[in-house]
């Protein structure tokens, strides 16, 4: 199954155990093509996201889509300049929100985790469809909330750039040097049996 790795992934990533290639093929490009994403694909990745598991099946995630020039311009006003530099080419931007209270009106302890799981499902389905994604934490949350009229009970989590991979030569030099799939820490550094390791 590892024969199905993308060329740039095969050169940079190797799993310690056998897993489906989609987990390695998903990586966060900064070089996006301006080619439009069909609604069938856009809503297909959102369909995948909405099947993510959540605490008590509350499904606290919400997505606001920006795909017209006017909508995307509104998003760019609250995205940090460093991220604007490359994400302005992406044909679709999405803001992922999570509802901080549950249906009973009490604080939800897992809303952010649940929204993150939905993001993961979205990213994998996008990869399966030949699309690229990049999640950004670098944006002004208060400005996003105001610009998009988001109620106070929802917390902005990330902005997601979605589209087709573009030419890395369009990137600034600093971003071009980062346009490779990154690696991961070995499992031995993040997985512990029985208890947290002591110094």
TrEMBL record:
Name of the protein in question: Nitroreductase family protein
Presence of the UniProt keyword Electron transport in the record: no
Superkingdom field: Bacteria
InterPro entries: Nitroreductase (IPR029479), Nitroreductase-like (IPR000415)
Pfam families for this protein: Nitroreductase
Protein family membership: Belongs to the nitroreductase family.
Keywords: Oxidoreductase
Organism encoding this protein: Paenibacillus residui
Xref: SUPFAM superfamilies: FMN-dependent nitroreductase-like (SSF55469)
Every Nitroreductase domain range: 25-78, 82-164
The keyword Oxidoreductase is annotated on this UniProt entry: yes
């Amino acid at each position: 199954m590892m024969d199905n790795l993308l060329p740039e992934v095969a050169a940079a990533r190797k799993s310690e155990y056998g897993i489906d290639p989609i987990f390695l093929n998903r990586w966060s490009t900064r070089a996006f093509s301006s080619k439009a994403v069909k609604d069938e694909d856009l809503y297909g990745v959102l369909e995948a996201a909405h099947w993510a598991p959540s605490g008590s099946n509350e499904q606290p995630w919400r997505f606001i889509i920006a795909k017209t020039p006017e909508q995307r311009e509104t998003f760019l006003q609250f995205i940090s300049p460093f991220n604007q530099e490359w994400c302005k080419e992406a044909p679709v931007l999405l803001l992922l929100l999570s509802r901080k209270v549950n249906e009973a009106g009490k604080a939800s302890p897992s809303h952010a985790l649940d929204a993150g799981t939905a993001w993961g499902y979205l990213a994998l389905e996008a990869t399966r469809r030949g699309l690229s994604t990049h999640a950004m934490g670098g944006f002004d949350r208060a400005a996003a909330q105001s610009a998009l009229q988001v109620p106070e009970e929802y917390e902005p989590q990330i902005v997601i750039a979605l589209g087709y991979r573009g030419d890395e030569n369009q990137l600034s030099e600093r971003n071009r040097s980062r346009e490779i799939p990154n690696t991961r820490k070995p499992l031995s550094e993040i997985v512990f049996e029985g208890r947290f390791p002591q110094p």
